[in-house]
Each structure stands twice: as C-alpha cells, then as structure tokens.
Amino acid sequence: MPDPATPPEAGKPRRNPLPALAAIAAIIAAMALAFAWVGGWLTPSKLTPARFVDVIEKANGEVSAGYRRAHAKGVCIAGTFESNGAGAALSKARVFAAGKLPVLGRMSIGGGSPHAADSGGRVRSLSLQLIADDGQEWRTAMNSFPVFMVATAQGFYDLNVASTADPATGKPDPAKMAAFGKAHPEAAPFFEWAKTAPWSTSLASTTYNGVNAFRFVDAAGGSRYVRWSMRPQTPFEAMDAEQLKAADPNFLSADLATRLAAGPLRWDLVVTVAAASDPIADPTKAWPEDRQQIVVGTLIVDRTEPQINGACRDINFDPLVLPTGIEGSDDPILAARSAIYSVSFNRREHEIGTGKAPDATGQAGSSTGGKP
Amino acid sequence: MSPSKHFNLPARLLHWLMSAMILTMLFVGVGMVASVTQRPWLVDLHRPVGIAILLLVIVRLINRLLSPPPPLPADLPTLQSIAAKLSHLLLYALMFAMPLVGWSMLSAGGYPIPMFGAVHLPAIVPHDPALYAVLRCAHTWLAFLLFATVLLHLAAALFHAWVRRDGVFQSMAGGD
User: Fold this and answer.
1) Tens-level pLDDT at each residue, chain A (372 residues)
2) How many Å apart are CA A344 and CA A322, to the nearest integer?
3) How many helices (H) and strands (E) does chain B have?
4) Cα(A283)–Cα(A364) distance, rounded to whole angstroms?
5) B-proximal residues of A, 122-181, CB under 8 Å
6) Which of A78, A106, A184, B65 is most deeply packed, by most CB within 10 A?
C-alpha cells in the first residue's frame, strides 16, 4: 500500500489525504460491486446458465460425468448433405448452393441418463454440423416434437424444477406438474403431442424439427423468417404401448445399425417460410399448415460411431453457430439453449479433459457407455 | 535533451482507447456467461473486440519500445516504484494473454471463430477436450486477475493524481 505520509512535493504545504483516499476507495468498491452484480454473484435468485444446468442435473437425479446434461444417450452419425440449390433463393449461406458437403452429427433421446431405455425416450433428436466450401459452419439441434414446451427461459427452468423426480416415488410429483401446466398453458400443445403422437419404430423414420425460428438473408439482402425440419424418406411405422414395453433397451441403435448395413438413410431438409402474421419469437406455436414449404436438400446418413470416441462427442451443437445468411431470431429459447449448452459443454469437457469421465470416454472397461 | 514528462500521443490514445475496451470486455465477459437471454449478441461483440485488443497491444508495445515512457518521480518510494513496474508488466502480459487464450480456447473447443460478416479466424490449436478444459478455466481466472490489476492500477493512478500530485497521472492524461 502507498504510504499516505509521503510528502507530496518538497516545499508544498501538506494536505489532509483522507478525503482523496476515501474517494479512491469508493470508486474502486463501486466498480468491484458493479462487476459482481453483472456476474450474477450478488443476486443468487437470478436465473443464470450455470444455475439452469444445476437444476437439470438435479432433475436428472445424477451427474453422468462427461456426458451431455440433456439428451445424454446418443450415437454419432456421419454422412453427406446434398443441396439441390432451391435454398439459395432464400439464403446466401453456401450450404444451400447446389452441391455436396460432408456432415457430422448425433442422434439421441431426451433425458439425462446415458444408459436409459430407449422406450422411455419420448423425445428424439438429430444434431448436425455442416461445413460449407467457404469454411462457414452451420450447427443445428432438432427434436421430434413439433413445438417447444415453453416460450421463455424462465418457463424452461420452471419445467425442469417441476419435473424433478420426487425422491419418495422416483417420479415427478403429479401435483407439481399440474401446477406447472396451469401456470404455463403455452405448454399444452407439447404435452398433447407427447401424449398422443404415435411412436415410430426407428430413428430413421422420425421427423426432426428445428422448432425455433431463424432469419434467412439472401444475396440481395432480402430476408424472411423460417423454421426447418428433417423429413424422413424412410416410411413411418408406428409402435404401440405393448411393443414399446417389450422393446430392447437399445432397440433404436440396433435398428439403426441394421438399416445402415443395408444402405444409407435419407431425410429431406424442408424449410417453412413464415407469413407476416406468424409468431416468430414463440416456439410453442405451430405455424399454419399451408405455409410455403421448400425442400432444399437431402441429408444422407451412411454410418454411425459410438459417442464415447466418435467425432460428435466434443462438439457443442449450439443452435446459434450459424453461417452468414442464417441468423437467429428473437426467440428467447434460442438464446437460452445457446447459453445452457455452453455450460453443459464446459462441464463435460472439463470432466473428460481431467480424466473424470471414464464411462463417457470408453475407459471404463466393459461399459456399454454411449450406445443408444 | 531532457526526457518528456508525458507519454507520447500514440501511447496516450492507445491507453485511453484500450482502457475503455478492456473494461467493456471484462463486463461483457462476466455478463454474457451469466445471462440466459443476452448471451448471443454479447458473444458476437466479445470475439472481435478481443482480437482488436490483441492487434492494438502489439502496436502499443512497439510504440513503448520505440518511445519509452517518462521516468517515475525520483522521490517515489522504492516499493511503489517496483509495484508500478510489476503491475505494468502484468497488464501487458494479460493484454496479450487474454485474447490469445480466448482464441485458443475456441479452437480447442471445436468452435468456429467468426469476427464480422463472413470473416472467420482459423483455429490456432487442435480440437482437444483436455486443452479446452484448461484454457476455458484459464480465460476466467486470468480475467479476474486482469480486473483486479486494472482496479489496482486505477487506484494507484488516482493516488498519484489526488494525493501525491506528482505529475504521474498527468503524464498519461495530458500532452506536452
């Protein structure tokens, strides 16, 4: 610390340094407090991405080190995206120029356990990383539900809190779920889908929806809001409750392997263009059926790899990793997903990087870790 | 020729410009990782401003080597003089380290590194989880160290300005 008794300059009268020192202390303290406030440390009730992931971990009932905090069970996929060029009129992103480019991705089921039974995975997902010839990347994480559960980060958080398993029963408390449903009527279409939509027998015959709206910007600077889906070319085949109950815990990966042995699997990438009146920032609301839909290309998946050592393991499928020509919308769920995925990625990469995730990296002997 | 009592004009411009940028980056940095709503635009700001700081600190170091700063007052106690020199060394080290660690961290995490429009930076280290884990933690802890050093630097500058009144603050605030 500086010595306040030091004479300012020889020959000048001494001033009382205390007011100046107090002012300096006040300025430094104010800056430190502002920093702590912005960082969320002074507001323990503020919803931060880290606190969000804490609640997901609590809802999971366990932390599966090295695995994704949500959609933990999955398999890496690889293949090709064949663009037919039809998307180039909508977006200047090079992925839509006619041609082929390599694709990495991941197929998974919802839930926090990497060893859960596939029959419990109401939600199925497809994540992709496409790198165009100009080096720009597009990452997307799509789900089998047609609409998202909630429209805000807080609603998403409330859902995780409500669906946390009651230690007594091992299941979510029905009263809490009912209270959530009452407080969040926007979740009704999602719950209706979860209850009534038929389950398909295969990841290959499942439709994956981007759900959130994005803005496509074309070469002339024109723009439109869109949502996208991967529509399977594999015919849909439903399975009933009895079949689900009897199914092998890993029936989805077994089915995928059987099908891929016979040949590649295909999905059409369908872009739906919003009308001016369509809700952009609310992923709980479907757009009308008659909106313009354009098939812009085909995803061809030709192989899988276990996620314990596959290329998808160390990729964060952040839905806001976008090339020029595709922009995020004001949908708050997009920002929330980006923030939450980042924390999940940081935690699991830290566990993998520091050797604390033997199961997730295939170092745990006879483990079957990572197979869906 | 007696040495100037002031930093030269490029040094002063760079100092005040970068002080605003660095403070902005520190607040944007802690804010963006603590927000579930504001992260996208804050991250998009954080990356190019970080790289701009890296470019500016290169210019600043060259200018400092070509045009050394004015000497500290002769009557400054030895301990304060050493503290001043060490804290400036640390500030320079962190101004280089923070953007380089950030750039490396994104590379090791397998992330693209967009700057603006279609301009992207290449990866400078391999995509590797162990490296990412170390660099990600380092970026946070070095940021806290930088903020603490900035506060110390500011406190010392104000001490020179308001208590010692020895011309040290003026050497950066005013010109010849």
Assistant:
1) 444 444 445 445 678 999 999 999 999 999 999 999 999 999 999 999 999 999 999 988 889 999 999 999 999 999 999 999 999 999 999 999 999 999 999 999 999 999 999 999 999 999 999 999 999 999 999 999 999 999 999 999 999 999 888 888 878 899 999 999 999 999 999 999 999 999 999 999 999 999 999 999 999 999 999 999 999 999 999 999 999 999 999 999 999 999 999 999 999 999 999 999 999 999 999 999 999 999 999 999 999 999 999 999 999 999 999 999 999 999 999 999 999 999 999 999 999 999 999 999 998 864 444 444
2) 20
3) 5, 2
4) 40
5) 134-137, 153
6) A106
- Apex CA B141: angle with CA B136 and CA B144, to 5°? 135
Residues A108 and A141 sit within 8 Å (Cβ to Cβ) = no
Helix/strand/coil percentages in chain B, nearest 5? 70, 5, 25
Taking CB atoms and an 8 Å cut-off, how many pairs form between chains A and B? 138
Amino acid making up residue B175: G
Look at residues A297, A316, A345, A226 and name the one whose alpha carbon lies nearest to residue A79.
A297
For chain B, the domains span 9-173
A47-353 CATH pick, 2.40.180.10, 1.10.110.30, 2.30.30.30, 3.40.50.1580: 2.40.180.10
ipTM confidence score: 0.96
CB contact under 8 A, A27 and B158: yes
Q: Tell me the whole-structure pTM to 2 decimals.
A: 0.93
**Cross-strand pairs, B121:** B113
* Among the listed residues A333, A246, A236, the one whose alpha carbon sits nearest the alpha carbon of residue A282: A333
Separation between Cα atoms, residue A371 and residue A114, nearest integer Å: 8
How far does Cα B39 stand from its chain's mean position? Answer: 22
- What distance separates the 2 farthest-apart alpha carbons in chain A? 97
Q: B133, A350: Cβ pair inside 8 Å?
A: yes
| Domain ranges across chain A | 47-353
Check: CB of residue A267 under 8 Å from CB of residue A304.
Answer: no
Give the span between the Cα atoms of A269 and A85, in whole angstroms. 12
| Parallel/antiparallel/unpaired status of strands A137-143 and A124-131 | antiparallel
Q: A354 to chain B: which residues are within 8 Å by CB?
A: 130, 133
d(CA A268, CA B21): 46
Instruction: With CB atoms and an 8 Å threshold, state whether A49 touches B39.
Output: yes
Q: What is the C-alpha to C-alpha distance for residues A371 and A250, in angstroms, rounded to an integer?
A: 7
Q: How far is A293 from chain B (nearest CA, A)?
A: 27
Amino acid at A151: A
Matching residue, tokens 């859960």: A116
Residue type at position B8: N
